Every structure is written in structure tokens, then in C-alpha cells.
Amino acid sequence: MKAPSPRLAVFLIVLLDVMGFGLIIPSQPFLAKHFGATAAVVTLLGTTYSAMQFLLAPVWGALSDRFGRRAILLITIAMTMAGHATFAASKSLAMLFLARGLAGTGAANIATAQAVLADTHAPDQRSRAMALIGAAFGIGFIFGPAIGGVLFQIDQRAPAAFGSLLAAINFFFVLFFLPETRSSVQAASHPRTKLSDLFSAGAQLRPLVFTTLLCITAFALMEQSVGLFIEYHWVSSDSPTALQQATKLTSLFLVVVGVAATLVQGIFVRKWLKTTSEVTLFRLGLATIGLSLLSIPLLGWIGSFALFLVCGVSLALGSGLFNPSMAGLVSLASPADKQGFGLAVNQSAASLGRIIGPTTAGLLFSVSENAPFFVAALLAALGVYISRNITLNKATQGA
Questions:
Q1: Which of 29, 126, 210, 370 could pair with 297 as two cysteines, CB 3.0-4.6 Å apart?
Q2: The domain spanning residue 98 has which CATH number?
């Protein structure tokens, strides 16, 4: 059987990874509460997953530069499979934390998958290829939670068990169909990489990584606060079905964002990158995210949920412009022999943003229902300001 193209292979790898994560989202808080977890501990369980991604992404990226992408993908996917299986078999809260830690350690491999695309695409094609990863994320986050919710009605452990099965399929797909894309000569001559290398890297990489941290933190603030915001403005607290209404409206908003982001990254950004530079699209994406976040309090005051959904499309457009363009720019800013490390440090910054955002969202919302969105818009604006001196182009990789 003919091996799939690197683009298709990476798309399927990321899709199965993200679907496995999404499957567990609906059941995670209820299983944790079953073992006596408080609301704060439930949140901490989710943070554990992102924390392991933050810590391990640079490690896997550097190891993939040295030993090859395929071996690291196989190791990390096996960890994800073990993590989901442990979650399904958990008999205590401690086992749930162990399971999420294992799965998060394995899921820190997204940058290694991105490095496969960097290995197999010329600089002027990388951002377009990275857009497929964004599309895989979008599809995974749409279908993962939906399937997980259905499976949870059958058995509360079924979503995690199915996630482990998807990881097993992913493992055998990589084992039999993904060739190594890092040449043995490159790997053998590659020096050991240290996290301190980030600070000696080109001046273009550091602001890109910091901008990723700001943007993902802003988006995470929105994601964690939007349900409370919707409940505050569009759900009557006197209604006996208030919780169901809030859940339904929040799900609708997030599905709109997910579908729109998938379309933007999977179709439109790939076309726009043929004629527009990554720097232009990523700045435009940041500005669109910032303006959309700033408009959320205004739409709550107006009281139109239909316009609020339009704002969701605008957020998806900004995210769809930003994510693949940023990944392409990070690849261009990273030396050719440290693609895995550079992309992984950027992924680690994104994971840190997913820790900071959820941790602070509740506190900001308790101050004001508008505070999370104003702070998020400010972070996006700061990202635009920091990016003003970025002048990377497709002919300056690693400069």
C-alpha cells in the first residue's frame, strides 16, 4: 500500500490525538466528582494535562531533532494510549491525575508533528501545510466532545476507553505508514539542545514565542469565561432549566467557533498564503482576535445572541489567520537543524497560556463579567505591538 503524503499523515496523527483528548472533556469533571473532587480540584485536573505539555514539549522537540520524528511520535502516542486507558480504569482520584499527566506528556508531541511538515516542505510552503494542523484541531474538537457525550450515556468510562483505542490506531498508523523525515546524517551531527538555547536563538524567535503566549492566554480567558458570560446575559436564573439552557447556548457558540476556524484554516488561509505574507496574516489575525474580544462586552449590553454568534465567527477568523501563520514563522525563525525544538518551545508557550488563562478567568469574572474579555483584548493588543519588528520572510530561515 502506498504511504500517505506527509501532509495527510500529520493531519491524521493530530486529528486522532485531538479527538482522543476531546472525548474525555464531557466526562472528566463528573468522574473526578465521583471520587470526591471539589470544583477547584476538577480544574486542577485539567491544568495537569496542560502543565505536562508545557514542560515536555521542548524535550520531545529537541529529542526529535536528535533521534528522528518517527521514534518520538511512537513513544508519545504510546504514552497517550496508556494515559487514556488508565483514565478508563481509574479507581481513585490519584489515578485520574496520573492518567491526565501521562496523556498530557504524550500530547506534547504536536510540535514534533509540525516538524515533520517542516522537514518535508520548502520554507514558502510551510505555513500552508501548518494550516492543516489547525483544521485537524478544529475537526477533533468538534467531533471529540460530541462522540464523548454520546459514549458517556452508554458507560461513564467508554469515552476514555475509545480514546485509548484511537491512540492505538494512531500508533500503528505511524509505525507502518510514516517514514522518518529527519535524515540520519542530520540526526547524527545534531548537537545536544538545552532550553537555554532559546535565549541564544535569533532575535526573531523570542518575540514570536512570547506573542503565542499572549494570544493563547487571551483565547483561553475567553473560552473559560464565555459560558458564565452567556449565562449572565441570556439565561434567566429563575428558570428551572437554566443550567441546560446555558450549556446549550455555550455549546452552540463553541461549535460555531470550531466550525468557522476549521473552514478558515483548512480552505481560506491556504489560499491567502499564496499571495500574502505570514507576517501580514498573523498580525491581522491578532488584531481581529483583539477587536472581537473587545466587542463581547458591548454585545452583552446590546443583548443580541445572534450578533454574539457572529462575534464567534470573527474570533475563529482571527484564530485561523494567527495559528498557521505563527507556526510557519516559528519554523522560519528556527535554524534548519533545530526545527523540532523551535516549534516545541512555541507549543510549550501555548500550553502555558492554557494554564494561565483558566487559572485567572474565574477571578477576573468575579470582579466583573466583562473583565476577562477586556484583559484578553489587552493581551492581544500587546501581541500586535511586540510583533511590529518581526520582518521574517521565506528566504531568511534561521537568520
A1: 370
A2: 1.20.1250.20
Task: Say whether both 279 and 381 belong to one domain.
Answer: yes
Secondary structure of the chain: what % helix, strand, coil (to 5)?
85, 0, 15
Q: Which of 199-203, 304-308, 375-379 has the lowest mean pLDDT?
A: 199-203
Residues 95, 206, single domain; the answer is: no
* CA 67 vs CA 56, 72, 271, 340: distances in Å: 16, 8, 34, 11
Q: How confident is the model at residue 185 (pLDDT cuts 50, 70, 90)?
A: very low
pLDDT-derived band of residue 153, with 50, 70 and 90 as boundaries? confident
What's the pLDDT band for 46 if we cut at 50, 70, 90? confident
> What is d(CA 365, CA 348) in angstroms, rounded to the nearest whole number?
26
Question: In the Cβ-directed half-sphere of 262, how many Cα atoms lie within 13 Å?
Answer: 16
175 and 309, same domain (yes or no): no
Residue 284, pLDDT > 90, answer yes
- Strand positions, DSSP E, 137-180: none
Q: How far is residue 124's CA from residue 340's CA, in Å, rounded to a whole number?
A: 18
Q: Are residues 132 and 228 in the same domain?
A: no
Residue range(s) defining the domain that contains residue 107: 1-179
Reference 261, options 371, 169, 140, 90; nearest CA is 140
Higher confidence at residue 201 or residue 79?
79
| AA identity, residue 129 | A
Burial of 276 (0-12, 13-18, 19+ CB in 10 A): middle
Domain count, the chain: 2
